[in-house]
Design brief:
alpha/beta, 2,3-Dihydroxybiphenyl 1,2-Dioxygenase, domain 1, 2 helices, 8 strands, 16% helix
């Protein structure tokens, strides 16, 4: 099984389009003003926006960046506001957070080997 895409609802799809293009996502479907789908710059994943009211509680989306600090610096120079700057986390990831135009929480992170193989990884399936 592979993850194909994540879709978030966006009341102002044009604002979402600009925001995710600024993050570096490349459009592969442009059906604005109701829908847009993007390809991530690496890894083959896709991400889409669907016009509509954001869901209560919103969504948290994680985008991994190999050069996290440089990506955050570049985005800040382009006017992107972050809630938190890159910080090392107890789960061995380095993360920065921001909000998209619909209020969804976006985490840019670098985990390296710890993304799939943290020191506490379960080696036997739980019964």
């Amino acid at each position: 099984m592979r993850l194909n895409q994540v879709t978030v609802y966006m009341p102002d799809l044009q604002a979402g389009w600009r925001f995710y293009r600024r993050l570096g996502l490349r459009p592969i479907v442009d059906a604005r003003p109701r829908y847009a789908r993007f390809e991530l710059p690496e890894g083959g994943g896709t991400f889409s926006l669907h016009e509509g009211e954001a869901r209560p509680g919103g969504v948290t989306v994680y985008f991994e960046c190999d050069a996290l600090d440089a990506v955050v610096e570049r985005l800040e120079q382009q006017g992107v506001a972050f809630e938190t700057r890159p910080q090392d986390q107890p789960w061995l990831w380095r993360e920065a957070s921001l909000r998209d135009p619909a209020g969804n929480r976006i985490i840019l992170f670098f985990a390296g080997e710890n993304r799939l193989n943290p020191p506490w990884r379960v080696t036997e399936p739980a019964v």
